[in-house]
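We emphasize that the prediction below concerns an isolated chain of 315 residues; any contacts that depend on oligomerization or on bound cofactors are therefore not represented. The input was used exactly as deposited, without trimming of termini.
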Amino acid sequence: MALVTTKKMFEKAYQGGYAIGAFNINNMEIVQGVVEAAKEQNSAVILQVSKSALKYAHPKYLKAMVDAAVEETGIDIALHLDHGADFEICKDCIDYGFTSVMFDGSHYDYEENVAKTKEVVDYAHARGVVVEAELGKLAGVEDEVSVDAENATYTDPDQAVDFVTRTGVDSLAIAIGTSHGAYKFKGEAKLDFARLETITKKLEDAGFHNFPIVLHGASSVDQNCVAICNQYGGQIDGAKGIPAEMLRKAAAMAVCKINMDTDLRLAMTAAIRKSFGENPAAFDPRGYMGDARAFIKELVEDKIKNVIGSVNSME
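Result of the prediction step, given as a token string:
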């Protein structure tokens, strides 16, 4: 077994009306929790790494852990760079053996985003690696991505067609109302599904059949995890994510990849806080980190079964 790209994953997801979960990894316990859940549900999965995670764990360690996960589980796993800020970090990850990279040029003006994305696409495709790019700007803060609400912009459908045509990207992250972090909405949650439908139709009309769309900032911010965190000394009041029914609707449309990072952070933190709160004399990391791994597995299984719908996508 070996790492795979997202190409066939997305083809099957689009046709099947579900999405593949893309879960951010930072350490061994998160990797194990995610892939054990995916194996239990016979689901393909994307393990993705941010720039901050690369600094924290080093790409060689992360790659080795993911290779071990592939060998251990036998499921289809893609290793993806999340929010690559420049050509060099994308190149480095490709050279390390990642099978997918995201170049995020959304902070550049449009023409520069096109040019820089095309540079990454040319390098990646020559080496059998797929590329995701972003058009539009999501609000919120997560790792080194920070955009205030005033500067967030929804993706323009006509521009999306032009962008895909000129860059040759394999998937496109769009902005339709999701946001990064644990505080996604102040009021009622809203996603612009009409915009998603328009983008999909215009891409189809332009010859991009079943083109995969990506949703970033799509954690549900599980309220049980928030409650556990707060019960055991946390201060995460008012955190609010994307309702599961909205994510299910997106997955039934053109969205083939749904990113989740905040949910995993909350699950790990909740499990560790609970472990410390109930066992104040304990100091063996295998105990509280083991609890965190188990809680992450439980959360990811729920996402696969009840939100993104990728159960048995290995068949």
